[in-house]
Specification:
The protein has 450 residues and is of the alpha+beta class. It is 28% helix and 26% strand. The strands form six sheets. Strands 2, 3, 4, 5, 8, 9, 10, 11, 14 and 15 form a ten-stranded mixed sheet that branches.
């Protein structure tokens, strides 16, 4: 390896954190570490000049050309790319599932209704079947040869006020195949069925910094190194799996532990930040029209809940006065098309001074309205008291608290996506649209809405 890489500064630039968004540029350039505000994918992997030796992300399933080392042939890596925003289209009749906080990804193969031949005919599924033989092996020497799965997903990114759907990818971690299934899927366009593969991937723990060291891939591409020698820059969790096999998976799976109780400062935007300006702008816009804030709160709830991968249906706003802890109604569809359950969502919206605090009693009013199978969402421009949070945790209430920081971040994102970054335009839309969304209906009626 080039001696220049031994400097700490250069090595640090070739680490990628889980959830980091990187630039996948059409122009092949390994000299520039950063493009715009994002790390350059070609620089990170120090992509070889020969294209067939690079790690590419053009297709959903991308393998690097095999190398023959002293102990046998191995694939340096397999990159999986998912495009959630395209799910259900003709080109992507699948819906991959991501739960990175609990170290799980469910990823569908690349067979389509138009594919001729059995499952495994396509290049991508052929790669998965080949990799599965090593990932499922009980032989340590075969696991040493196994290709790590590098998981990415396309994320729409706003650049200079314009939404870009291509060229930006979120790094989702390093995976090991835990399960492979042969399934039958339904084509969303024509309604026919087709066979495919689906794999359950364990995203492994990358250590306290949650970062991936690209030198590991350098070593796996180096035919002079044995597969054992190529482990020197591998995550410790991967080495544990190589030694112990499937028995190690529960111990090495990535888990994100967060404190369930947030301090007041953690619930508000950073002082002097753009999000702090947005939070105060929201408060000023609705201080004299609190009911209109409920329209915005329902859209924020939609955004927050759909981040989990579930489908949210916006319902209606309740009439002003006498709502009894209920300002808006929605429905959350959890599961897949063939196996799902609808949940009634009751929302409470409180536009208060950003330095104000929501008390336990105010949260309790929403909880009191919930029935079995319903969940609550409480959206505020302020923060929630410690006691309010503790009571929800201790009593296991099914309610989501959306504080001022999350509200500001969400408004910021919604404005960037739909209004060219103009927050005022989004707030004017809320003021214009809220009266048409008000109705007098029972919450349970949302279950019958298509």
């Amino acid at each position: 390896m080039d001696g220049a890489w031994q400097s700490t500064a250069m090595i640090d630039m070739r680490f990628t954190a889980i959830n980091e968004v990187i630039r996948y540029d059409r122009e092949y350039n390994t000299d520039t570490p950063v493009i715009g505000d994002h790390a350059n994918f070609w620089f990170l992997q120090q992509a070889p000049a020969l294209e067939h030796k690079r790690l590419l992300l053009e297709a959903g399933i991308n393998g690097v050309k095999r190398v023959v080392g002293p102990d046998g042939s191995r694939s340096p890596a397999i990159a999986l790319r998912s495009s959630p925003w395209k799910a259900g289209q003709d080109s992507t009749p699948w819906h991959d599932e991501f739960d990175l906080d609990h170290g799980h990804v469910r990823y569908f193969g690349d067979h389509k209704i138009s594919t001729l031949g059995p499952v495994g005919t396509t290049r991508g599924n052929g790669r998965l079947l080949e990799a599965w033989n090593l990932h499922a092996s009980g032989d340590m020497r075969e696991r040493q040869l196994a290709a790590p799965l590098l998981v990415f997903r396309a994320v729409p990114t706003v650049v200079d006020g314009i939404r870009r759907d291509k060229g930006y990818l979120e790094f989702c971690g390093v995976g090991i195949m835990e399960r492979l299934e042969f399934i039958v899927q339904r084509d969303p366009a024509g309604g026919g069925t087709f066979p495919n593969l689906v794999i359950d991937i364990d995203i492994i723990n990358l250590g306290p910094d949650d970062q991936f060291d690209w030198r590991w891939i350098d070593d796996r591409r180096n035919p002079e190194l044995t597969s054992e020698d190529a482990l020197r820059h591998a995550p410790e969790s991967w080495r544990q799996w190589v030694r112990n096999g499937r028995a190690a998976l529960p111990r090495i799976r990535r888990r994100v532990l967060t404190s369930p109780v947030l301090s007041r400062s953690q619930q508000l935007p950073l002082p002097g930040s753009r999000d702090e300006e947005i939070l105060h702008e929201v408060y000023r816009a609705f201080d004299d029209n609190k009911h209109a804030f409920e329209w915005l709160a329902s859209r924020i709830a939609e955004r927050v809940l759909t981040k989990s991968g579930a489908n949210y249906n916006v319902g209606w706003l309740t009439r002003a006065g006498g709502d009894g802890g209920m300002d808006f109604v929605g429905r959350l569809d959890v599961g897949t098309t063939s196996a799902k359950t609808p949940l009634v969502v009751l929302g409470q919206a409180k536009c208060i001074q950003p330095d104000s605090i929501i008390s336990p009693d105010q949260v309790a009013r929403v909880v009191a309205r919930l029935r079995r199978g319903w969940i609550g969402v409480f959206v505020t421009t302020g923060s929630f008291s410690k006691q309010a949070q503790v009571e929800i945790i201790d009593d296991e209430y099914p309610i989501i608290l959306v504080n001022g920081r999350t509200l500001a971040e969400t408004v910021h994102a919604l404005a960037e996506e739909s209004h060219g970054g103009d927050v005022s335009a989004l707030l004017r839309l809320a003021l214009d649209e809220y009266s048409g969304a008000v109705t007098n209906r029972r919450p349970a009626e949302i279950l019958g809405v298509g």
